[in-house]
Design goal:
heterodimer; A: mainly alpha; MetI-like fold; 0% strand; B: D-Maltodextrin-Binding Protein, domain 2; 2 domains; membrane (chain A)
Chain lengths: 304, 427
């Protein structure tokens, strides 16, 4: 007897909202949903729609089917370099800059001398906008007047760090990593501070080496931080724009999808349809990462 | 400061653009439309955002206010932002009269019905050459532009370097090449060259094409009517390739300012530039040492007839409700007096009106006047003579690629041609 009653009571629970409650909930949920629809889904769907047209921003909108995509894949030379460079950003920041930031964080966490000093020095670039980092990179890497070539003193045959399309992407990645490393380091430092020292002690007592302790004990407990760092790294890589735009408008070896979108959409004779098609490609790439992340996140959640 | 040229992205500004572009583009239409006024007023949309031209224009408009009973209201917008927002500007509520460029870039908007015809004004104009009239005329044969000033392109050099080493000004391409070779032997970079901003090298292409194939072919090529795989175009790249060893290396990593500095420092011998460009990088003491000669002749059939001289001027918006007042102002701007006031303040350009006094000109300006007044045809610069999206999306990249790999002409021209077809077909 008591069982069905309890069930009924449970079922009845949610129904106890008065109509006023429902109105409040409706408004409070409705506003953000509307905003989300208008500000995020609206433009996204509009981009997808426009990517099938050849709209120039002024005239009539003509439907052209998948022509923009065909052109993009076959007859737009900067496209594939841009895709390649975007992936290179993800790989470089993810496999080089981020681990390096982690290494610095571990070293500083061990309490080397002057660690506060190093910490603030390494973090310093993070306060700079990437556009500024771009200007600084030009001062350093410029072929004729840059600091690096002056130091190398190779006057007769100076290296064209930013003009050589085989070389400049690496210089830019280096400059971007300069900033990214500090960012990652500070996140990991915060994480490392919160690792329970008794875990490390226990591992030491069990006879684990320092490396083993780090990879088997410390790193797994940093999981939440790892996820945040991973997300930030991917976002930074995909939204990269200002540094290459500051250096040479993202041309001659520094192409990125975000630059191509801007180039086509902003300007006198805008190719808004075509630019939208590139934006859709960028969206697809981003969705790939977002979905992977969410799936992992949900699986991880279940396990936990 | 250069009152800035066409797509001539002056690098310092271009750098700022990286961060400002987004915000500027969004804010522009609102800024431009946020002005209404009484009837006795003419509104001008100005892209003269640099200090020197801005002041110079202010004086011109002051003079007009004193002369007429009209008030002039100037809306100055950052040069780059103005260019980028021009579509939305004209679609929204543009000012009555606004600054813009001659040639294809004007015709483009005339064709879209955004500009008011001013052929009647032109009937009363005096002192404008036929070449100027052609550059102010739309594809429908009607006039739309009041030209104001221009700045020719030529090959710049230092008199003292030429005197010291006994170089002579070359007249033909062979002499030019021989001179470059000699400079190379003398340890100079023969031709200073910087194309990091993407546009400066276009001037060299334009001249090579006009000298080798003539003005008409050049304009027709720019208009999308010729094939880029035509042997004539391949020949232009081939001529250029032959000169490449004498160009400063690493041009894609060098701004035009740095190239001009190498000319000033006597590290390089010559450079293809527009009138406002090299002078800015020379110290005041050295400026008198700067000189130029017209781009050498390649085919005697075309000689040195064509001169590349971008023209800036004023247009009347079709949407303007003050057509009469707008035209009155434009009539004034076409007078020699109006140009003299401006050029006294900004000596980096020359007046378009033959009747304008040249007494305040420096030697270089006087020489520039000779150059353009003897020109049989005047071109505008690649990014003004063709569709802007073609120039910026295809040609900048193509020329930079050519600078990297000058030997791969066939695939380069094929690439340009197939992209050209897509872009020119989009209308």
């Amino acid at each position: 007897m008591p069982l069905p009653t309890a069930r009924r009571a449970k079922r009845r629970g949610p129904r106890r909202f008065t109509s006023r409650d429902l109105a409040v909930i409706g408004v409070l949920l409705g506003i953000p949903i509307l905003l989300e629809l208008a500000l995020i889904w609206g433009p996204t769907l509009a981009s997808i729609g426009l990517s099938f047209t050849n709209w120039d921003g002024i005239g009539d909108i003509h439907w052209v089917g998948i022509d923009n995509y065909k052109t993009l894949f076959t007859d737009y030379p900067p496209f594939w370099p841009a895709v390649r460079n975007n992936l290179l950003w993800v790989a470089f920041l993810g496999l080089v800059a981020t681990p390096f930031g982690l290494l610095l964080a571990v070293l500083l966490d061990k309490g080397v001398r002057f660690s506060r000093f190093y910490q603030s020095t390494l973090y310093m670039p993070v306060v700079l906008s990437l556009a500024i980092v771009g200007f600084i990179a030009q001062l350093v890497f410029s072929r004729d007047q840059g600091a690096l070539n002056a130091i190398l003193a190779n006057k007769n045959d100076p290296v064209d760090w930013l003009g050589d399309p085989d070389l400049n992407i690496w210089m830019v990645l280096l400059a971007a990593a300069w900033r990214h490393t500090g960012y990652v380091m500070i996140l990991y430092l915060a994480g490392l501070k919160s690792v329970d020292p008794s875990l490390k002690e226990a591992a030491a007592i069990d006879g684990a080496s320092e490396t083993q302790t780090f990879f088997r004990v410390v790193l797994p407990t940093l999981r939440p931080v790892n996820i945040i760092v991973g997300v930030i790294t991917v976002i930074e890589a995909l939204r990269a724009f200002d540094i290459v735009y500051a250096i040479n408008h993202g041309r001659n070896g520094l192409e990125l999808l975000s630059v191509l979108v801007t180039d086509n959409i902003i300007g006198e004779a805008s190719r808004i349809g075509f630019g939208s098609a590139i934006a859709v490609v960028l969206l697809t790439v981003s969705l790939g990462f977002i979905v992977t992340y969410l799936v992992q996140e949900l699986r991880g959640g279940k396990k936990g | 400061m250069a009152p800035s040229s066409s797509g001539h992205r002056i690098s310092r500004r271009a750098l700022l653009r990286g961060t400002a572009a987004g915000a500027g583009a969004v804010a522009l239409p609102t800024l431009l439309t946020a002005c209404g006024g009484p009837g006795n007023e003419v509104k001008i949309g100005s892209n003269a955002s640099d200090a020197v031209p801005r002041k110079a224009f202010a004086e011109v408009f002051d003079a007009y206010e004193k002369k007429s009973d009209k008030k002039v209201k100037v809306n100055t917008v950052n040069h780059e932002a103005f260019q980028e927002g021009i579509n939305r500007y004209l679609k929204g509520t543009p000012d009555d009269v606004f600054m813009w460029f001659a040639g294809y870039r004007m015709q483009f908007f005339a064709e879209q019905g955004q500009l008011a015809e001013i052929s009647d004004l032109w009937k009363g104009f005096d002192g404008f050459s036929d070449a100027l009239k052609a550059q102010s005329t739309g594809k429908d044969g009607k006039q739309y532009l009041v030209p104001y000033y221009y700045y020719p392109w030529a090959v710049f050099y230092r008199k003292s370097v030429f005197a010291q080493r006994g170089y002579e000004v070359p007249k033909t391409f062979d002499e030019f090449r021989a001179l470059a070779k000699r400079m190379d032997k003398d340890g100079l970079d023969a031709i200073a060259f910087g194309d990091k901003d993407g546009w400066p090298a276009m001037g060299t292409f334009d001249y090579l094409n006009m000298r080798a194939n003539g003005y008409d072919f050049h304009i027709s090529l720019m208009g999308g009517k010729e094939s880029w795989t035509d042997p004539k175009v391949r020949n232009v790249f081939d001529l250029w390739r032959g000169l490449m060893p004498y160009h400063q290396k690493g041009a894609n990593g060098r701004t035009w300012q740095e190239a001009a500095q190498s000319l000033a420092q006597k590290k390089s011998g010559m450079a293809v530039f527009g009138l406002p460009h090299p002078g800015q990088q020379f110290s005041a003491a050295d400026r008198d040492d700067l000189d130029f000669f017209p781009f050498p002749e390649i085919d005697s059939a075309y000689g040195q007839d064509a001169v590349e001289a971008p023209i800036d001027g004023f247009l009347l918006a079709k949407k303007s409700k003050r057509q009469k007042e707008g035209k009155e102002l434009m009539k004034y701007l076409a007078t020699p007096a109006a140009e003299e006031i401006y050029l006294k303040r900004d000596p980096n350009n020359i007046a378009v009106n033959d009747k304008a006094s040249t007494s305040s000109y420096n030697a270089l300006q006087k020489k520039a006047v000779d150059l353009v007044s003897n020109a049989k045809q005047i071109s505008q610069f690649m990014d003004r003579d063709t569709r802007p999206d073609f120039a910026s999306q295809v040609m900048i990249r193509a020329i930079q690629q050519f600078i990297n790999k000058p030997n791969d002409i066939d695939s380069l021209t094929k690439d340009i041609e197939s992209q050209k077809k897509t872009i020119f077909a989009s209308d």
